[in-house]
Write a structure and sequence with these properties.
It is built from 6 helices and no strands. It is mainly alpha-helical. The longest helix is centred in the N-terminal third of the chain and has 37 residues. Its main location: membrane.
């Protein structure tokens, strides 16, 4: 299964995996069976796996050009990503994570001018901003040296693994 059908299936699974557990019944049942930590671990692994499938499916979708990539757009992404990772690592609660995803999506939207990626990053931006609307902006930041080191390691890993995992270098030419 490739092309637009796989892309639509990946979106359906990703959204379903995030919307169904948000309902009180399924979430409570899953937490009752797995425990809170088990639920969060399983949900996180499932989310990462589905996000990766969605990224791969967007890359496999037929290329439909919408706009040229501005030369400065990779600089925008490379400036926005450390900020997003810091917000995600230091923000208290889910509000920091969803704000980080909104920044990630917005910066990447500018840098990717084909239809599949515009849908992907635009959709992720809307999805993340709806999370920001529900949880609000981070009310507090937990700044510790461990969280700062973690943020730097995550940023370095994403920067160096991007060509291997995504197939495109994020560095400006």
């Amino acid at each position: 299964m490739t092309g637009w059908i796989e892309y639509a299936a990946a979106w359906a699974c990703f959204l379903g995996a995030h919307m169904i557990p948000a309902l009180p019944g399924p979430r409570g049942w899953l937490i009752g069976r797995l425990g809170r930590r088990g639920y969060l671990a399983a949900f996180s692994l499932l989310s990462i796996g589905l996000l990766y499938w969605l990224i791969v499916a967007a890359g496999r979708a037929p290329y439909v050009h919408l706009w040229d990539q501005p030369a400065w757009s990779r600089w925008l992404v490379n400036i926005a990503m450390p900020v997003a990772i810091l917000i995600g690592a230091l923000g208290a609660g889910m509000s920091g994570l969803v704000l980080a995803f909104a920044l990630w999506a917005g910066a990447h939207l500018v840098a990717n001018g084909d239809l599949a990626h515009a849908i992907f990053f635009g959709g992720m931006g809307v999805f993340a901003l709806s999370g920001v609307a529900r949880s609000g902006l981070p009310g507090a930041f937990r700044v510790t040296w461990q969280r700062l080191v973690l943020a730097v390691l995550v940023w370095a890993a994403l920067l160096h693994l991007h060509p291997l995992v995504i197939g495109v270098s994020p560095l400006p030419a």
